[in-house]
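Researcher: Please translate sequence to structure tokens.
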Amino acid sequence: MCVKSAALLPWPRPIRRGSLEGVRTEPGLRRGRPMNLDRWITRSTSRARAQVSCPHILLLRSRPQSVSDARHFIRGYLATNVPDASDDHLDQVSLVASELVTNAVKHGSAPGDPLRLVIDADDRCTRIEVHDSIRRHPRIKAATDNDTSGRGLSIVNTVCAGLWGANDTSTGKSVWAEVHAL
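Model: Translation complete:
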């Protein structure tokens, strides 16, 4: 698993040419030719980049400002890693992340407690997880017209077409949701 902070770092790190000078290479398996280790590593990491999507993790504190930080991080991640994502998809993922982080801030942790936002995305789906320290699982409640809150999970359920849930972790719980591309 790849752990990232708010600063977007390249993953996996590019290998500099010539950084393996002086390393002894063993004979390759193909036709008895010596294996160029530098070329093999470069080729392998290029394949890994094409096949593996690294989840990004943003560490937050339980405070209202974290909702805005999460939205900004999500949009930056998607712009970098899924550049062809539609504006509607970006809006939906930002909305779901905002609702999940808001619930974690209001109901899933004490002020100042750590929260963890995990995002993983490809061309078809974006998965968001928010980890907090309280084990109580969220549930949808029916909000009346006069209520000023209580609609967050209803929104998540609608946007994600029911693809959301909660899992226990060693430090509390994680609430996840999947938003499929339009």
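Researcher: Any highlights?
Model: Residues 87-107 form the longest helix (21 residues).
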